[in-house]
Amino acid sequence: MTGVRLMMGVMPLVVLALALGCFLLYPRRDGGSHRFPVAARESVAARESGKGRPKS
């Protein structure tokens, strides 16, 4: 019975804590906000400079 309680209660918390730790320690490429990725910024810059795809 104790094994079942551990697998249903403690183990999910341990796995969640490990996943959260990996999420927080994972390095971001641009070092800035992840809400506006580098590729999107470059795409906007290219469009504004006239080098991007023509507007339809």
Describe this structure in words.
The chain is mainly α. 0% of the residues are buried. The protein has helices at residues 2-25, 38-49.
What is the number of E strands? Answer: 0
User: How do the helices and strands follow one another from N- to C-terminus?
Assistant: HH
Average of pLDDT: 77
Assembly of the depicted chains: single chain
Percent helix range:
55-70%
**Rg, please?**
22 Å
Q: What fraction strand? A: under 5%
Shape descriptor reads: rod-shaped
Low-pLDDT stretches are none
Structural class category? mainly alpha
What is the distance, rounded to the nearest whole angstrom, between the alpha carbons of the first and last residues? 65 Å
Number of helices: 2
Strand count, sense and barrel status of the largest sheet are: none
Write the SSE topology.
Elements: H1 2-25, H2 38-49
Short précis:
This protein is mostly helical and 56 residues long. 64% of the residues lie in helices and 0% in strands. The protein has helices at residues 2-25, 38-49.
List keywords for this structure.
56 residues; 2 helices; rod-shaped
